[in-house]
Amino acid sequence: MGDGNYDMREFCIPDYILVPGSEVKSVSHVPACPVIAFINTKSGGQLGGELLVSYSTLLNKNQVFDLGKNAPDKVLQKLYATLETLKHNGDNFAAEIQNRLRIIVAGGDGTASWLLGVVSDLKLPQPPPIATVPLGTGNNLPFAFGWGKKNPTTDLQSVVSFLNHVKGAREMKIDSWHIIMRIKAPKEGSCDPIAPLDLPHAMHAFNRVSSTDKLNLKGYHTYRGGFWNYFSMGMDAQVSYAFHSERKLHPEKFKNQLYNQSTYLKLGCTQGWFFGSLFQSASRNIAQLAKVKIMKKGHWEDLHIPRSIKSIVCLNLPSFSGGLNPWGTPNRRKSIYRDLTLPYVDDGLFEVVGFRDAWHGLVLLAPKGHGTRLAQTSRIRFEFHKGAADCTFMRIDGEPWKQPLPKDDDTVVVEISHHGQVSMLATPLCRSKSVNDPSSPSVDREEDDSSEEELSEDWEERRKFGAAETFKYPEGIDIAQVS
């Protein structure tokens, strides 16, 4: 089993556990870190396909699944049914496999979220912790837990090295966030306001809400989903949507992470987000589109959104848009920040951040750059104004979609609330901070002493990029493409 040059005994699971009905064998060695690997072969250009070959060479091929061919919920249901049956029959080896099992998922942030959603939904006994291989463009989830953000090399030696990191990784809980979207059913025309294919995997995790679900309301279409990294709306989601649409049309061009990142930046330019106030109608401003409410001490309160904000991000992890941290480190000596806690990933709160335009987003590339901090909360609600615009753009964990907005008396409401926790695997390079673990990396090391007054409306006039020696574009970006 596996390649002769590597000792894979610590990671391999025998067939009788993976293939229902196989002959039960007595096993002498209990693997320290049995794994199931899910690989999105469409991610990372040809890298996904190469990883599938390497993992299948090193491990039992029945431990390795191509997500294009195998639905992860079916795989895990079958595996856990077999494990429970074997345990019931007194198989201690099966019990040990279940205790020690770890999941590896290779793909973009959307793929990783899909797996997290499946593990949450299946309510498995002892849900296995998850390690992520960065195969996408942004790779925020892997970056936040120390797995890097560059697409990996796929040779056997690199995979063995990754497996050893998985064996040594520690478990870390993170909050899961439930998102529900209610759309008033149109009186005529199509029954489904969004083609299900256009919704991200994370909204498919719960699928269309069944008629027996108590969250369903008569006369409305209801969609549910989950996220672990972020939900965003507006400018950044529109650029992401343009990128995904372009990639669907010309997949052959998007085989290189650097090319993907520079295309992303170019789309931000061509869509006018860099000079928002000059060219855009106010309908792109969040305050014009929606009323935003947050839960405070058991009551809904209106959240003031400055009129210049064109993008709003609800952030669970300290990583967004390729590893940047839009929340930054608020100086809690300032009265405006006194009530804020550190951004923990397991405290039942997420951070709400706004951006004025794409230049404001690029502020994050400076060492102490951050967005406009708006709130920390456990629940948020967006109520869209009728007639403000035909549609807006939304994004969950790297997957964007175009959302039609109400005409006349239709209503679109999006609400986010806490929905339990899942287990991630973290390396010593993990950037996420746990409320339960004082040894996790401290964001407290330096207070942000930037003098920028957060909610000021005239930021547009005061930005001076050339003066910041510390500011630099991402590696490999041609400045001529940006200007």
UniProtKB/TrEMBL annotation:
Ranges for domain DAGKc: 30-183
Give the keywords, sorted. ATP-binding, Kinase, Nucleotide-binding, Plant defense, Stress response, Transferase
SMART domains on file: DAGKa (SM00045), DAGKc (SM00046)
Q: Where is this region: Disordered?
A: 430-462
The first-level EC class reads transferase
- Give any GO molecular function from the UniProt entry: ATP binding
How is this protein annotated for GO cellular component? membrane
- Catalytic activity annotated for this protein? a 1,2-diacyl-sn-glycerol + ATP = a 1,2-diacyl-sn-glycero-3-phosphate + ADP + H(+)
Keyword Transferase set for record: yes
**SUPFAM superfamilies, sorted:** NAD kinase/diacylglycerol kinase-like
Gene Ontology process terms (BP): defense response; glycerolipid metabolic process; intracellular signal transduction; phospholipase C-activating G protein-coupled receptor signaling pathway
Q: Assembly and partners?
A: Monomer.
Q: What does this protein do?
A: Phosphorylates the second messenger diacylglycerol (DAG) to generate phosphatidic acid (PA), another important signaling molecule. PA is required for plant development and responses to abiotic stress and pathogen attack. May be involved in the accumulation of PA during cold stress.
Q: Which PANTHER family match?
A: DIACYLGLYCEROL KINASE (PTHR11255:SF29)
State the family named in the UniProt similarity comment for this chain: Belongs to the eukaryotic diacylglycerol kinase family.
What's the protein called, per UniProt? Diacylglycerol kinase
User: Lineage from the top down?
Assistant: Eukaryota, Viridiplantae, Streptophyta, Embryophyta, Tracheophyta
What is the gene name?
A: DGK8
